[in-house]
Amino acid sequence: MATVFLIVLSYIILAYGERTTLDISKRDEAKIFFMEFNRTELSHTTYNPRHGVVICRIVSGNSLIWKQDQRNEQCVRFVVYRLYGMERVAYALISRDKLYYRYYRFKQGEWKELNSDVYNEVFARLLLEQKVNIRDIDPAMFSTHEYTPFGIPSFTYVPISKYRIATIADGSDLIWESEDHKCEYFVIHGDPKDPKLVQLFINCRNTYKLLYFERRDGQWVPVTKESFYSKLEELDNETGTVM
């Protein structure tokens, strides 16, 4: 009964309402009602048109997410999920002759439409994705191994099976962010309280590669394998001199 009422109301609003574009990069509280639900990791924002307003298009800045195919079509609700503040997935509840859903994923800087099965799979993974701060690593999330292959101590962190690494950061400084890639493990070389070199083992659709990062002038930058090991040797020599 509630669904029938919503559809009838939608037809009335479509006939007499003010047509507008929802831009999720801005806040237009005169036309859109916002509801935000914040958690430490996964949060979401719900966008609903105010009374008398018809959402006929959805954008994020200059990027189009959805637009009506027919004049009797409108979005009655749009929900965006963010992981650690970064947009990941969204869905739109659309009213036409009946109510139906459209699903989206934010990938490589743009919103792409998904079918419901893929959306549910991606959303389920989000619940297990974790942001790793290399200065405050949760021991409950990782199996940790210390070894000394280069003269200075190295620490390997392997996430336990149910977790997936979403991002690796040094405080607020982002080092690496996952898209379709999976970080199997990462290595901090040297003092973990003052990290200078980080090595990532990445699985990209069953193709494996190593990524190398160095902290220079307080910022993390990707470097070549040769530059990485040259710096590692330099740190090893410094450690040997101190000893």
The amount of helix comes to 10-25%
Biggest sheet details: 6 strands, antiparallel
Tell me the number of strands.
Answer: 18
Can you tell me the overall shape?
elongated
Protein name: Signal peptide containing protein
Signal peptide: 1-17
Organism: Theileria equi strain WA
InterPro entries: DUF529 (IPR007480)
Outline the fold blueprint.
Blueprint: H1 2-16, E1 18-23, E2 32-37, E3 42-49, E4 53-60, E5 63-67, E6 74-83, E7 86-95, E8 99-107, E9 110-114, H2 116-126, E10 129-133, E11 142-147, E12 154-159, E13 164-170, E14 173-177, E15 182-189, E16 197-204, E17 207-216, E18 219-223, H3 225-242
Parallel strand pairs: 1-4, 10-13
Antiparallel strand pairs: 2-3, 3-6, 4-5, 6-7, 7-8, 8-9, 11-12, 12-15, 13-14, 15-16, 16-17, 17-18
